[in-house]
Amino acid sequence: MRTGAVPQLLGPRGRALGYRVARLETAVFMREAQALYRSLGFRERPVFEGSEAGLSGLDALMLYMELRLSAPPPAAR
Q: Which InterPro entries does its entry note (predicted)?
C-alpha cells in the first residue's frame, strides 16, 4: 500500500464507518515506523485498554499512539 493511501483509509473512510480514533502499538526501537506514524498525525499516548503488549507485561518495550479521526489528518510537509 502506498503511504499516501493510509491517511485516506484512516481519515474519510474510517470516519464514514463510524470510527473516531485509530490506535496502535509499536516497539520502542522502531524509530522509522514511529516517524511514519507521526507524519500521519499519530500522537503518543499512555497504554490503552486491551493492548496485547500491555496485557503481556511488555508495555515498557512499546510505544502507544493514536490518531483522532474526528478531524482530517495534518497536511503533508
A: Acyl_CoA_acyltransferase (IPR016181)
